[in-house]
TrEMBL record:
Phosphate binds at residue 103. Residues 8-123 form the Semialdehyde dehydrogenase NAD-binding domain. PROSITE patterns: ASD. GO terms for molecular function: aspartate-semialdehyde dehydrogenase activity; NAD binding; NADP binding; protein dimerization activity. Pathway: Amino-acid biosynthesis; L-lysine biosynthesis via DAP pathway; (S)-tetrahydrodipicolinate from L-aspartate: step 2/4; Amino-acid biosynthesis; L-methionine biosynthesis via de novo pathway; L-homoserine from L-aspartate: step 2/3; Amino-acid biosynthesis; L-threonine biosynthesis; L-threonine from L-aspartate: step 2/5. Catalyzes the NADPH-dependent formation of L-aspartate-semialdehyde (L-ASA) by the reductive dephosphorylation of L-aspartyl-4-phosphate. NADP(+) binds at residues 15-18, 43-44, 162-163, 325. Substrate binds at residues 159, 245. This is Aspartate-semialdehyde dehydrogenase. Homodimer. Keywords: Amino-acid biosynthesis, Diaminopimelate biosynthesis, Lysine biosynthesis, Methionine biosynthesis, NADP, Oxidoreductase, Threonine biosynthesis. Its EC number is 1.2.1.11. Belongs to the aspartate-semialdehyde dehydrogenase family. It comes from Brevibacillus formosus.
């Protein structure tokens, strides 16, 4: 990338957990920024955020906020993206959207840089970030898909409460304190705030993320099904998911069973994973070395371990996949796409 090339960047949803991570990544990675514009709701306008030692005043996000903006990184909820993303494109910005608003739009590429960055290069102004759980799974499965092909994926997720926002983090911490103090825990947020029934998350596991669809799977589970097919560009891959919220603050974990199209050598599988971009193989069970959410927190990579043959299916393979849901699952994937677009321009 040429040293003199700099860009005007807007972060929409700058006060949210993912927006804050985006800002930190832009600073840590020395993203070539000419001007940074931080956009949020009207109630946050006027507050300041420090970026590279300077105080930047938050502005209310409006249709006219994007004049002169080159990259608009959205993470303020699907309704905001639907309202404002096209205005950003109208002003000439490339939108990288972290919500579900455009993921399944056939005209919008759904991108994980390690998997299908080529799709991003054909964008029409908007690029979608996949669901956090989908991102880490397809990143780990990409080298196996390319080498052997995939018939079927069965995934069970163990998802951190940060995926449901700061209110869910607060509820986990509050409930934990209350239970330890012998008090009755208050349940107001999980599994879904807008639903009438809420369950305790502290010392518990809730097998519901998002609301249920008519087929008995939740929308979160169906996101993994449909997004995986779109990212791989392959509707023949059979995907089934069960998504569970657990009392962990950061880091999603997944148990993934995959049936490959071809016979495989386990040593080759591990070598492919070890050498894959963005993947860290942590697979020494004899030493009790395997991916942990606590180790993945704050890291940009996807961690894979517990790689082993299925006991019954000759082409079946099991693995354990862990990643920081706010970083690779959201903020880093967004910034990474922008970085790769810049590289492709030069």
């Amino acid at each position: 990338m040429a040293n003199q090339l700099t860009f005007n960047v807007a972060v929409v949803g700058a006060t949210g957990a993912v927006g804050q991570q985006m800002i930190q990544l832009l600073e840590k990675r020395n993203f070539p920024i000419k001007q940074l514009k931080l956009l949020a709701s009207g109630r946050s306008a006027g507050k300041t955020v420090t970026f590279k030692g300077q105080e930047i005043v938050l502005e209310e996000a409006t249709p006219d906020s994007f004049a002169g903006v080159d990259f608009a990184l959205f993470s303020a909820g699907g309704s905001v993206s639907k309202e404002l993303a096209h205005h950003a494109v109208r002003h000439g910005a490339v939108v990288i959207d972290n919500t579900s608003a455009f993921r399944m739009d056939p005209d919008v590429p759904l991108v994980v840089p390690e998997v299908n960055m080529d799709a991003a290069l054909a964008h029409n102004g908007i690029i979608a970030n996949p669901n956090c759980s989908t991102i880490q799974m397809v990143a780990a499965l990409k080298p196996l898909y390319d080498r052997f092909g995939i018939d079927r994926i069965i995934v069970s997720t163990y998802q951190a409460v940060s995926g449901a926002g700061q209110s869910a983090i607060n509820e986990l911490l509050d409930q934990s304190r209350d239970i330890l103090d012998g008090k009755e825990p208050q349940c107001n947020v999980l599994p879904v705030g807008k639903l009438p029934v809420h369950h305790q998350i502290a010392y518990n596991a809730i097998p519901q993320i998002d609301v249920f669809t008519d087929n008995g799977f939740t929308y979160e589970e169906m996101k993994m099904v449909n997004e995986t097919k779109k990212i791989f560009g392959d509707d023949t891959v059979l995907v089934s998911a069960t998504c569970v919220r657990i009392p962990v603050v950061y880091g999603h974990s997944e148990s993934v069973y995959v049936e490959l199209k071809q016979d495989y050598d386990l040593a080759e599988v591990k070598a492919l994973l070890k050498n894959a971009p963005g993947i860290v193989l942590v697979d020494a069970p004899e030493e009790q070395q395997y991916p942990l959410a606590t180790d993945a927190t704050g890291k940009l990579e996807v961690f894979v371990g517990r790689v082993r043959r299925d006991l019954h299916h000759p082409r079946g393979l099991h693995m354990w996949i862990v990643s920081d849901n706010l970083l690779k699952g959201a903020a880093w994937n967004t910034v990474q796409i922008a970085e790769e677009l810049i590289k492709a321009r030069v």
